[in-house]
Design brief:
Elements lengths: L4 H6 L20 H9 L2 H6 L1 H15 L4 E2 L14 E5 L2 E5 L5 H5 L6 H4 L1 H14 L5 E6 L1 H10 L7 H9 L1 H24 L4 E6 L7 H7 L1 H11 L6 E5 L6 H5 L5 E3 L6 H7 L4 E6 L8 H14 L6 E5 L9 H12 L6
Parallel strand pairs: 1-4, 4-5, 5-6, 6-7, 7-8, 8-9
Antiparallel strand pairs: 2-3
Helix pairs in contact: 4-7, 8-9, 8-10, 9-10, 10-12, 15-16
Bound molecules: coproporphyrinogen III.
């Protein structure tokens, strides 16, 4: 049995304190990360095992989180499909985007353990330097969320291109999603083989779909990914932003942990997701409020989940740039000083 409270919570095993990590914990809110970014581009960090390790460990050393998440990005596995993935100040760009059934046919197939070997080498380097201090989380994007970027070609608020694709070419969309599911399942499995102690699938944009379409265009592909990477003792986490309308559907998934956003009522999630661990769900923007608010709202979440052995504290989505670091420290201390009733 693992000695880490994070793994114990994910597997619903008794443990003493509530574990906390936060999505996007290595990043631009930390001056120490910005110092690395002054000297290296985002891609340079992602391609260097040493820099990946440096920035992955920063939030562990500075803030004391109970799990590390490898520094990388969900969009990197799109490049070997034959598109260009770049990051500039306006956000990520994928060129050319997929817009027609022919574009789907043109996507290359590849072996994740080969094409993504630079990430796996970085993951092993992180494991080595962590030296079992905290567990390491591997990750990738859900097939649907990756398809959003592949079709939109950039971040979007309207999601018009991906919806046009799904509504006009449902069969071709399914072919693309099936291909992405195979690739991401194998990619997560390779991360586990390289040493990841847990894996998280980010379904950041699945929540834009009507529930019947979530059932058809996101859920089955998540199932495939989790089937392929299923490994005894390695928790599989699904994070879904805007999860409230889909909780009943998520309850059916074969995975250990569901990550929920701040719009989702914790008591309702506990009832519907009975048997699974829950991860979440403080509104990341609350960290811009006064310290008393951070403490009060964190304590409300801790009180609501105090009877669970399967709760992992996190934000409801990624931490934002400019978040005051002192409030993050206060959050970690509040969670760590909370005693679970015996
Ligand atoms: O959590 C961590 O600390 C590990 C690193 C990590 C990054 N991206 C680093 C990153 C993780 C887990 C991600 C996941 C990711 N990437 C998601 C899912 C999580 C979510 O927020 O919903 C998504 C949708 C992406 C795609 C992506 N990558 C976008 C939209 C952007 C630009 C906007 C932004 O958030 O910065 C990126 C770039 C990116 N990924 C940066 C970092 C630190 C900023 C790049 C820079 O430093 O210039």
């Amino acid at each position: 049995m693992s000695d880490f409270d994070f793994i114990k919570a994910a597997l619903n095993q008794p443990h003493d304190s509530v574990p906390i990590w936060i999505m996007r914990q290595a990043g631009r809110y930390l001056p120490e990360f910005m110092a690395v970014r002054e000297k290296a581009s985002f891609m340079e960090i992602c391609r260097s095992a040493e820099l990946m390790t440096d920035v992955t460990l920063q939030p562990i050393d500075i803030l004391g989180f109970d799990a590390a998440i490898m520094f990388s990005d969900i969009l990197l596995p799109l490049a070997p499909l034959g598109v260009k993935v770049s990051y500039d100040s306006g956000g990520p760009r994928i060129t050319p985007p997929v817009r027609t059934p022919d574009d789907v046919t043109g996507l290359k197939n590849y072996i994740p353990a080969d094409e993504m070997s630079y990430v796996l080498i970085g993951l092993k380097a992180i494991k080595e330097r962590l030296n079992d201090r905290v567990p390491l989380i591997g990750f990738c994007g859900s097939p649907f969320t990756l398809a959003c970027y592949l079709v939109e070609g950039a971040s979007t608020w309207s999601f018009l291109e991906i919806k046009k694709f799904i509504y006009n070419y449902p069969k071709d969309a399914m072919v693309m999603l099936g291909q992405l599911a195979e690739l991401t399942g194998k990619y997560l499995k390779a991360q586990i083989e390289a040493g990841a102690d847990a894996v998280q699938l980010f379904d950041s944009w699945g929540g834009i779909l009507p529930p019947d379409y979530y059932r058809k265009f996101s859920l089955p592909y998540i199932k495939t990914v989790f089937e392929i990477c299923k490994t005894e003792g390695v928790p599989r986490i699904l994070y879904l932003n805007n999860s409230a309308p889909y909780l009943e559907l998520l309850a059916e998934l074969d995975c250990e942990v569901i990550g929920i956003d701040w719009r989702t009522d914790l008591d309702r999630a506990k009832t519907i997701l009975e048997g699974k661990a829950i991860q979440g769900n403080l509104d990341p923007q609350m960290l811009f409020g006064p310290p008393e608010l951070v403490q009060k709202e964190a304590t409300i979440i801790l009180d609501k989940t105090a009877d669970m052995d399967s709760f992992i504290f996190n934000l409801g989505h990624g931490i934002l740039p400019q978040t005051p670091v002192d409030n993050v420290k206060l959050l970690v201390n509040t969670v760590h000083s909370f005693s679970k009733p015996k």
